[in-house]
Specification:
Radius of gyration: 20 Å
Low-confidence stretches: none
Mean pLDDT: 92
Protein name: Short-subunit dehydrogenase
Distance between the termini: 76 Å
Number of helices: 9
CATH architecture: 3-Layer(aba) Sandwich
Pfam family, one: adh_short
Family: Belongs to the short-chain dehydrogenases/reductases (SDR) family.
Number of strands: 7
Largest sheet: 7 strands, parallel
Structural class: alpha/beta
Organism: Kaistia geumhonensis
Helix content: 40-55%
Keywords: Oxidoreductase
Shape: globular
């Protein structure tokens, strides 16, 4: 087996199945050694054996529940202390739907811990080293924040954080040699749907992308230098127009006086 030239170590969270497992296989094929992170040590070990056999890369299993502070701290310390790490993939997450008025606050808090707190802390642990030596941070978000009226709830809000956080990381670290990418998949064929109470079989098949195809498209976007990659979007100009409209708001978002349309006189005339 010919071994691809090494590209350092990639830390992949949520690697036991689905998107995370697909990323692990693709990154190893690209020459990365791996540290794979998830709660299920048995599934991680099976993945590690498969990846080692298929690519010859080194794969370390790190079983951790990222909603537990002690486990999260172990992964943070590894990111801070290991100069061989050149890529962090924040993929671990959980989904959940249903009306906000009937949501379980404890379950929603657990979602915030995994979908927001964990990736934030891991990225901040990796950032100083990456800023010094170069590195890549990939945050797997979702298209849901872009169509919030169709998918209201806490889950979409957590993914909106990841999009904004990725843009913030890029604004601060892009000039320091740190690559940042937010990946916004649409519906993807993983077991996340069944776990969230919305079986994949209930979705129209024409909107569901296979996991491997989604990851391949996301990595192609990374290769092309995209900060935000929407794997199903045919024309990147649509996203660029969306961003241009957002930037156009800038000069009027903070001014000394209220807008004329909101003045007392305008209000009284109405």
């Amino acid at each position: 087996m010919s071994k691809v030239e090494g590209r350092g170590v990639a830390v992949v969270t949520g690697a036991s199945a689905g998107i995370g497992a697909a990323y692990a296989e693709r990154l190893a094929a690209r020459g990365f050694d791996l540290v794979v992170v998830a709660r299920d040590a048995a599934k991680l070990s099976a993945l590690a054996e498969k990846v080692r056999g298929g690519t010859g890369r080194s794969v370390e299993v790190l079983a951790a529940d990222l909603t537990r502070k002690a486990d999260l701290a172990v992964v943070e310390e590894r990111l801070r202390s290991d100069p061989a790490i050149t890529l962090l993939l924040n993929n671990a997450g959980i989904a959940g739907g249903g009306p906000l008025v009937s949501a379980d606050p404890d379950q929603m808090e657990a979602m915030l811990d995994l979908n927001i707190v964990a990736p934030m802390r891991l990225a901040l642990a990796a950032a100083p080293g990456f800023a010094a030596r170069g590195g890549t941070i990939i945050n797997v978000a979702s298209i849901v924040p872009l169509i919030v009226e169709r998918f209201p709830g806490v889950y979409g809000s957590t993914k909106a954080f990841l999009l904004h956080f990725s843009q913030s990381l890029h604004a601060e670290l892009g000039s320091k040699g740190v690559r940042v990418q937010a990946v916004l998949p649409g519906a993807t064929a993983t077991d996340l749907w069944d776990k969230s109470g919305l079986p994949l079989a209930n979705l129209p098949p024409e909107i569901v992308m296979e996991t491997g195809a989604m990851v391949d498209a996301a990595l192609a976007g990374l290769d092309q230098g995209e900060l935000v990659t929407i794997p199903s979007l045919p024309d990147v100009a649509d996203w660029e127009a969306f961003e241009a409209a957002r930037h156009a708001l800038g000069p009027n978002l903070s001014r000394r006086v209220p807008a004329a349309r909101l003045s007392a006189q305008a209000a009284s005339a109405a």
